[in-house]
Amino acid sequence: MTEQLKPCPFCGSEDLFIDDIDYRFNEDISEEHRDGICSAVVCFNCNARGSEKDSENKAILAWNSRKSGTNEERQ
Ligand SMILES: [Zn+2]
To answer: What's residue 75's pLDDT?
Structure first.
């Protein structure tokens, strides 16, 4: 079962996409973290960005648990 994306908590837009980041070619990321592909939900409308996770499903769950006015969660 695929998780359904909730509308953007900041602007209410449903114009969202999953951004897949390939860390292996990103020289801005320290080498120890360059171990594969991460996914994050991004809002086309306001560029809000969810937490980066190692799977699309986790990225969606992180996005859905997000509330407006809070900073990006960090672990
Ligand atoms: Zn938005």
So the answer is: 45
pLDDT in tens, 43-69: 999 999 999 998 899 999 999 998 755
Sign of CA dihedral 48, 52, 55, 61: negative
- Ligand 1 centre distance from Cα of residue 42 (Å): 8
Residue ranges of domains in the chain? 16-64
Q: Output the CA 65–ligand 1 centroid distance in Å.
A: 15
- Buried b / exposed e over 2-38, threshold 16 CB at 10 Å, is eeebeebbeeeeeebeeeeeebeeeeeeeeeeeeeeb
Residue 47 token pair:
């560029």
Residue 46 CA, ligand 1 centroid: distance in Å: 4
CA of 17 to the centre of ligand 1 (A): 11
